[in-house]
Amino acid sequence: MQERICIPLDIKDSKPSALGTFRGAIEDCIDRTIDMIVFTPKGSFEADPDFGFEYWNHEFSNLNVREFNNSYPGQIPAISGRPAEVTRFDCEQSLRNSIMTYEPSLENPEVKVELDINTIAPSFHKAQPKYQMHILITGSIDDGLGVTRLYEKRISFMVEPTLTVRI
After folding, report:
1. Which of 10, 94, 96, 113 is the most exposed place for a label (fewest CB within 10 A)?
2. Alpha-carbon gap, residue 122 to 120, rounded angstroms
3. Higher confidence at residue 91 or residue 120?
């Protein structure tokens, strides 16, 4: 299996300055790039304002889980009577566009985003996150010899303000 240099690169603080790299299989490199995209707010990377995940720009908005998960063009209108600040479609598009631009090794990327109410039981007297974000990214990898293999990455993490009581 061919090793590749993965991003992010690490500039070591030494004399003379050195560039540290991570080498790994193509799947490892794609995983690292996707992690950077998912955990970077869209617009915060000055070299390309389209890089990143749109959700982080609306993290503390008052989201309705059902509205968010059904917010595709042509789907049910907003329950609250006002348009959502961020939609599932916006989030999926921001990730897909960043992946297509910054990870060309992943062909035909598909992105699915879902927001769930946190169901993990809280620890005694501990605040808990309000929602869980689930992201599924699929596509295919061409090894350069005409052989493709499927790629799948699942990312789940807690989001939104913490609550001291269950919702």
Report:
1. 10
2. 6
3. 91
